[in-house]
Amino acid sequence: MKPLYDFSQLAVDRTLAPRDGMLAKDADAVLTEQYFDLGRRALELIHFSAELCDKPHYPNILDLPCGHGRVLRWLRAHYHYANITACDLERDGVDFCAQQFGAKPVYSEVDLHRLPFQNQFDLIWVGSLVTHLRHDRWLATLDCLVKWTKECGVIVFTTQGRTVSSLLARGRRNVAENIDKPALLEEFARTGFAYQRYFESNAEEDYGLALSSPEWVMRTLQRYPDVIMRAYLEEAWGMQDVVMLYKKAGHYEPILGVPEMNAQAEPGPAKPAAKSGGLLGKLFGK
Question: Rounded to two decimals, what is the model's pTM?
């Protein structure tokens, strides 16, 4: 894909971690360059979000999951002045990002509510996280991201949408061979969201492939009165879609509800319909 911006003059640290799971040890020059291209692409998208949201600076940045710095190395080169937090379940990646790129190390938790963030961030980059989470953890992650973002801050995260589902439906090999594809596609067609655990993952880890349609994502985001969707870009980061959000307190009326905290709540009976004396009653003078 044609570059959005010219970052050819950036002094990017191209040091690779020995245990970087995003790049095989025997990767050839082409695969290695693709690795760096995807990192550069993330920076282009983040820079685009800054233009859309009128953000000249991102002083405090969170990269979650940071891996071994595929994107963070580009963030450090461009936002050299920034306080960048590297967070991941893979501690070796967090340690590498701290040592090599001067990031603040934070070991992640399966339950993101347990993370010890005391300060909020101007930018949160989330590359390929909710793409692997079941429905309740997907929603809980979004709740956390909004909570951790400063007023007038930006969230950029990726999803798996119509591209991956179409490849699976057409029988494309080597996209996801370790899931129940028919069950995934059936649920996706029915609801716009689908999740299937990887065969090698256990119930405790519960890591798999999540599909979310653009319509489902937008409908979910409409429950956040403090969040404005600035952009939804299909196939903008490899095969993944990219969502750009801007936080502004109380920008919308919460007519469509408030964020779910499904990961913290037990399933219960359906709530009764809102009475006319509630929010809608106030809006229309009833």
Answer: 0.90
